[in-house]
Amino acid sequence: MKKTVLVSGGAGFIGSHVSVELIQAGYDVVVADNLSNCDMTGYEGVCKITGRDDIPFVKTDFCSEEQTEALFSAYKIDAVIHFAAFKAVGESVAKPVMYYKNNLSSFLNVLEAASAHGCHNVLFSSSATVYGEPDKVPVTEESPRKPATSPYGNTKQMCEDILNDTVRATAGTEGEIKGILLRYFNPIGAHPSALIGELPRGIPNNLVPFITQTAIGRRECLSIFGNDYPTPDGTCLRDYIDIVDLAKAHVCAVARMLDGKMDKPCEVFNIGTGRPVSVLELVNSFEKVNHLKLNYKFAPRRDGDVTAIWADPTLANKVLGWKAERSVDETLAAAWAWEKHLAGK
Ligand code: WQD
Predict the structure, then answer these.
(1) Is the pTM here over 0.85, yes or no?
(2) Which residues line the pocket of ligand 1, CB cutoff 6 A?
(3) Residue-wise pLDDT tens digits, 207-253
(4) Domains of the chain, with CATH numbers?
(5) Lesser CB count within 10 Å: N end or C end of the chain?
């Protein structure tokens, strides 16, 4: 029997790519989203890429207990991947209550409904932000979590704890929950079809959308935040991971849960490449692979940025049997193709 995976926030950037990979791997997917931070482009892209016109889309606000409950009543869900959350670091500093309310209540409702409806498998989309400014790089899953530097980061830590506690409390009961936490590093790029990708509203906070919007002429100039960091070229180091690679990690994790292969009832994996790339290197690669010149300047450091963080992905490589495959160049070519698609070019 085909298993059904609920993707909360399934119309968003990561959710849409994960939905595609799940469907292509043979799962039934229910896409649910309240469309608060995206439109139907993501869902429509999923249908086009997979050639399917029968993928359920349910407009659901997971902050509503009733709507979440109704969704779990309407479908027999075998696993849920929870993406539905606000994700802008700066906005979370300005509007903490909104962030805590949204990100915590939606996850609590999902957990409650999953447990009540015999859905035993919950995958939570966490972030490398839980490591804060690491003492040692690369970071392994054993690296300490540091105090969060923003309410957004705090919600990720709190949801990790909530899942851990729920797994512990429900062990051996009818409403047993098993959990996987995937800690993403910096997801970038777009689907090679250029039918789905990132759709930031307003001025992008993240580097790659700012680069592609500058290249297409929507922004005048990219500011590189800080060139005096203690790194080889003075700019920050990150682990940029291709969005399709990242999506495939979810398929491996879901299979591990549904096939009963977990070693522990709550597992954590770093989802990154293990390859540090500086801001300047990323900009240079973008220019080279797409044969263009980017207008950029050096600007002061951005508050809250860590100098360097990248993953040790050994655990995910070994245990999930997953590895990031795409080069930075391939990913930046896909990001540019998506930006051009959006501009109708
Ligand atoms: C990357 C690098 C910037 C924009 C954030 C969240 C994290 C995660 C992903 C989100 C940094 C530099 C950026 C610009 C720049 N989750 N930069 N000019 O900060 O590593 O991670 O996004 O949902 O939780 O914290 O990603 O893309 O913002 O920045 O120089 O205009 O690019 O300083 O070094 P970050 P980012």
Answers:
(1) yes
(2) 87, 89, 127, 129, 186, 205-207, 210, 222-225, 236, 238, 279, 302, 305
(3) 999 999 999 999 999 999 999 999 999 999 999 999 999 999 999 99
(4) 4-188+240-271 (3.40.50.720), 207-239+274-340 (3.90.25.10)
(5) N
